[in-house]
């Protein structure tokens, strides 16, 4: 069971042992009851003899282990679900950049796949071992009663197990199709709902709703096929079960007339056959279900690998950021080409250029978030390929987390109430204190305007006291006066600032040490505005 951690494997083995013990006792009870019936029919005074007490004790043990194994099975399912949910979350937080496809898959795995794996794969494996144990023990018990009767029962039971394999490949393929269809629906639903205002404004909600319903129809089709496979399997199994019961009673009655079987033996055989029939029937469905979810298990297993997270480098001070013939390609397209730039400690830089010229990609490269293929060198204090804690990035569309305003600003660091209030005053976010408790009320993107989101993002960067502050259109949603006030303050800070902007405050233009113009990923000019 490679999917599970060592801690959960202990509970897995404990559940397995308890379940197998219950199986053994469940087979022992009908054998003892048959002996008890034979003893009583031979001598009515034996009704309170040794077989009665053995029958009573084993029945109590059967009930006890049934309760224990049920509790442990449910507890194991709970632990496995929790294990996979935790691993999915860890995997998501190992990424440096938002990936919608990964998020869509993770949502499916948290909501659906974790339960499927826990119940059909992990617990299903225990149930399979339990069924096989019961089948073996029941077969041994039947042979002690009558060999002819046992052979007939076992042959029919084997047919019941083998039949579902006819649909195994088709059912696995159908399950893969169902997972893929569910991922597409999740991804599209998230995308469409995020842009619901745009869809309403353009009168396009009906069209995009029909697209989602079409995706849902694809899921419905796979669910229908799965139901068809199960219906055929259950129907054939039911027919074989009825046949087996008829054969047992008919053949058993014949053997009694030939004095080859006792009445107690027939009763024991009927009970064991029922005990054998249930695991045989269940085993066929368990094997079918387990094969069906194997594609999910392979996908979910990726979450159990401990994600590699590179610790950020902490230095006394960042002195230089140097690009040496650096370039970056995304999907084969070169977004940065042969850059050779040097940014120095405490200096202020303005990056200008048209949309799509590579300005934001440059900032993200400095912050340690890169996508695609890279060449050349990007060195910070002479070190390449490292992320630094003293570098903070403020984006045009910042992330707002479903947490308190204080947590959104301090991001897990100890909250300093005095600095918190000073930052709120400076950013002119006092109106938020009237709407939310700073420490306890959760906020979301929908609660805030674009300007409020940008100011919160700037505040969290300033509270971190970075050596390098990267600003990507940080004030695009702010009014001119507030934008001017904030930019003026930023230019007075004793840190390196690299700011990307389409709208330059001419009043502050000459306070930048250098203005770098980029077009199509290439530096076309570097000027000193002073």
- Uncertain segments: none
Name of the top-level CATH class of the largest domain: Mainly Alpha
CATH topology of the largest domain: ABC transporter transmembrane region fold
Number of helices: 14
The proportion of residues in beta strands is: 5-15%
Question: Average pLDDT value?
Answer: 84
CATH homologous superfamily annotation of the largest domain: ABC transporter type 1, transmembrane domain
Element-by-element helix/strand order: HHHHHHHHEEEHEEEEHHHEHEHEEE
Membrane topology: Multi-pass membrane protein
GO cellular component, one term: plasma membrane
Organism: Lapidilactobacillus concavus DSM 17758
Transmembrane segments: 12-32, 52-77, 128-145, 151-168, 234-257, 263-288
How does this model look, in words?
- It is a single chain.
- With 530 residues, this protein is of the alpha/beta class.
- The protein is built from 14 helices and 12 strands.
- Strands 6-9-10-3-11-12 form a 6-stranded mixed sheet, sandwiched between helices. Strands 2-1-4-5 form a 4-stranded antiparallel sheet, covered by helices on one side.
- The longest helix is centred in the middle third of the chain and has 53 residues, at 205-257.
- The mean pLDDT is 84.
- This is ABC transporter ATP-binding protein.
């Amino acid at each position: 069971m490679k999917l599970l951690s060592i801690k959960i494997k202990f509970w897995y083995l404990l559940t397995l042992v308890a379940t197998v013990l219950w199986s053994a006792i469940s087979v022992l009870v009908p054998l003892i009851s048959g002996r008890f019936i034979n003893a009583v029919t031979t001598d009515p005074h034996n009704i309170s003899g040794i077989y009665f007490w053995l029958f009573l004790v084993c029945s109590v043990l059967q009930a006890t282990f049934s309760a224990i194994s049920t509790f442990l099975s449910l507890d194991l399912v709970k632990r496995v679900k929790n294990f996979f949910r935790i691993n999915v979350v860890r995997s998501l937080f190992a990424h440096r950049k938002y990936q919608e496809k990964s998020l869509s898959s993770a949502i499916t795995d948290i909501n659906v796949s974790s339960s499927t794996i826990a119940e059909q794969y992990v617990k299903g494996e225990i149930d399979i071992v339990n069924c096989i144990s019961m089948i073996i023990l029941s077969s041994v018990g039947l042979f002690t009663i009558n060999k002819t009767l046992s052979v007939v029962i076992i042959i029919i039971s084997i047919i019941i197990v083998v039949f579902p394999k006819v649909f195994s490949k088709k059912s696995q393929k159908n399950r893969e199709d169902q997972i893929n269809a569910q991922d597409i629906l999740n991804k599209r639903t998230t995308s469409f709902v995020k842009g619901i205002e745009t869809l309403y404004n353009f009168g396009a909600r009906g069209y995009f709703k029909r697209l989602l319903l079409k995706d849902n129809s694809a899921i419905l089709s796979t669910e229908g096929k799965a139901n068809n496979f199960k219906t055929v399997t259950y129907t054939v199994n039911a027919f074989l079960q009825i046949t087996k019961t008829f054969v047992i009673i008919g053949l058993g009655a014949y053997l009694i007339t030939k004095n080859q079987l006792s009445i107690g033996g027939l009763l024991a055989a009927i009970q064991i056959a029922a005990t054998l029939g249930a695991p045989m029937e269940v085993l066929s469905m368990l094997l079918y279900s387990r094969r069906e979810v194997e594609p999910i298990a392979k996908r979910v297993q990726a979450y159990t690998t401990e994600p590699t997270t590179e610790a950020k480098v902490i230095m006394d001070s960042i002195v230089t950021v140097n690009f040496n013939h650096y370039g970056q390609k995304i999907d084969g397209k070169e977004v940065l080409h042969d850059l050779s730039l040097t940014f120095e400690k405490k200096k202020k830089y303005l990056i200008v250029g048209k949309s799509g010229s590579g300005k934001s990609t440059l900032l993200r490269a400095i912050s340690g978030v890169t996508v695609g293929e890279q060449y050349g060198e990007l060195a910070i204090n002479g070190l390449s390929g490292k992320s630094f804690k003293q570098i903070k990035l403020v984006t045009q569309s910042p992330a707002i987390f479903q947490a308190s305003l204080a947590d959104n600003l301090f991001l897990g660091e100890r909250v300093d109430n005095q600095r918190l209030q000073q930052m709120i005053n400076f950013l002119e976010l006092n109106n938020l204190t009237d709407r939310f408790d700073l420490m306890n009320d959760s906020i979301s993107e929908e609660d805030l305007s674009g300007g409020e989101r940008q100011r919160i993002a700037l505040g969290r960067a300033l509270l971190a006291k970075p050596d390098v502050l990267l600003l990507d259109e940080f004030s695009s949603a702010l009014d001119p006066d507030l934008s001017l006030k904030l930019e003026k303050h930023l230019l007075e800070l004793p840190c390196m600032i690299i700011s990307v902007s389409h709208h330059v405050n001419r009043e502050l233009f000459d306070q930048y040490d250098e203005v770098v113009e980029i077009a199509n990923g290439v530096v076309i000019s570097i000027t000193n505005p002073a």
